[in-house]
Design brief:
The chain has helices at 21-30, 63-72, 88-101, 126-137, 146-153, 164-176, 221-234, 239-255, 273-281, 295-306, 317-325, 344-351, 353-364; strands at 6-14, 34-43, 56-58, 77-82, 102-110, 115-116, 119-120, 141-142, 181-187, 193-200, 205-212, 284-288, 337-342, 372-375. By secondary structure, it is an alpha/beta fold.
């Protein structure tokens, strides 16, 4: 069982607007992770232009005393995750807190929340960008969007589709700042699809994850992504798995909001929290349909994915039912699981309609003691 983790998130409180701490704390908590907060500022609402202004109370002077109190109380954290920081001085304070308040091996996760759509947010300048670049250089994971990535690396920004060579060059520039991993958000190589690049800077390993682009621009989605990513990482997911989960959570949050024109100030992320909690509590196993050209291939793939190979299993429908029920080394007997059948159409064509129907009937039959949710 993954150990119970405690994280500290440092960003502003926008009292209305579903962003920053008002989304970070509930999302991280929903992930089963203790979320401690340090507000950098309190705003009446977020800074989106449709609100026609905002009140702002800077909490910079309060931050050192709070951190010092935690240090005296020996309160430490398994991760520090930063979002919107209101000033250059706050960046320096965050650096100091990361040094003093992280447990050994604790993660530094930086969302350089300062810009979007080609422009800096209100109140920021290039001096702030330079200091944010230095903070990113000390991070284990940074989560910039394209605008922020371009500003951090002095790269020209453009709104049209990007070429893969451009993205790879941008990732190398971000890696040169010093961060260990980069999750570059909002890239698009084709119309109608948007995604993230997950880059291991030391190994030079790059993986992409794309989803359908929902045709709605929404405030706070970057904060929802960062919070879900952080919570998933604390639950033991890899950076790529956490990125995929966070992206799908954001898509579900936008879809829960897209028909409500009055809800223009954020997304109804609360309605998507069940998706997030299920994904973290119910194990996911993935069949590779490209390996399946026959019924024997299917059973071999089931063995590979759902057993540890320590027991010989039969290659028939009864054995399939037993394996789905669990107890073969990958999930507990009777435990609920999710089974994702990738490349389903390719393998279904090879197996034939009648065979696929018999297999699906077993997989989806919950009356025999297994609880398997199938994703195709």
């Amino acid at each position: 069982m993954t150990a119970y983790k405690r994280i500290l998130t440092i960003q502003d409180i926008s009292c209305v607007g579903q962003c920053s701490l008002t989304v970070a704390q509930p999302i991280i908590s929903a992930c089963g992770v203790e979320a401690c907060i340090l507000p950098s500022a309190v705003l009446s609402n977020h800074t989106g232009a449709d609100f026609h202004g905002f009140t702002f109370r800077d909490l910079t002077e309060d931050m050192p005393g709070i951190a010092a109190k935690w240090e005296r109380e020996k309160i430490y954290f398994d991760a520090v995750y930063t979002g919107y920081l209101g000033s250059i001085r706050q960046i320096a304070l965050v650096k100091a807190m990361m040094e003093k308040l992280l447990n050994p091996g604790g993660l530094r996760i930086v969302d350089p929340a300062m810009a979007d759509n080609g422009a800096l947010y209100t109140g920021f300048d290039l001096a702030f960008v330079r200091e944010m670049a230095a903070l990113c250089g000390e991070a284990d994971y940074i989560l910039p969007n394209l605008t922020e990535a371009c500003l951090l690396t002095d790269t020209p920004y453009h709104e049209v589709l990007w070429e893969e060579a451009e993205v790879k060059a941008l990732l190398k520039k971000l890696a040169a700042l010093g961060a260990k991993h980069v999750i570059l958000k909002g890239i698009s190589y084709e119309e109608g699809r948007i995604g993230n690049a997950v880059y291991d800077c030391a190994r030079g390993e790059l993986r992409y994850d794309f989803t359908l682009r929902v045709p709605r621009s929404s405030h706070g989605t970057g904060d929802c992504f960062a919070a879900a990513f952080t919570g998933a990482m604390m639950r033991g997911k890899s950076a790529f798995e956490a990125s995929k989960l966070a992206a799908r959570f954001v898509v579900a949050s936008i879809r829960a909001t897209e028909d409500d024109k009055e809800h223009w100030y954020g997304v109804k992320f609360e309605l998507a929290l069940p998706l997030l909690t299920e994904a973290l509590s119910v194990p996911l196993f993935e069949l590779d349909g490209s390996r399946i050209a026959s019924l024997e291939d299917f059973y071999a793939e089931i063995d590979r994915v759902l057993t540890d190979g320590s027991e010989k299993t039969g290659h028939n429908l009864s054995a399939l039912d037993d394996i789905l029920r669990g107890g073969f080394g990958k999930h507990a007997y009777g435990q609920q699981i999710r089974l994702r059948w990738n490349h389903f159409e390719e393998s279904a064509e090879a197996l034939g309609e009648a065979t696929v129907f018999r297999l699906l009937r077993v997989i989806l039959d919950r009356e025999t003691g297994h609880d398997c949710k199938l994703e195709i």
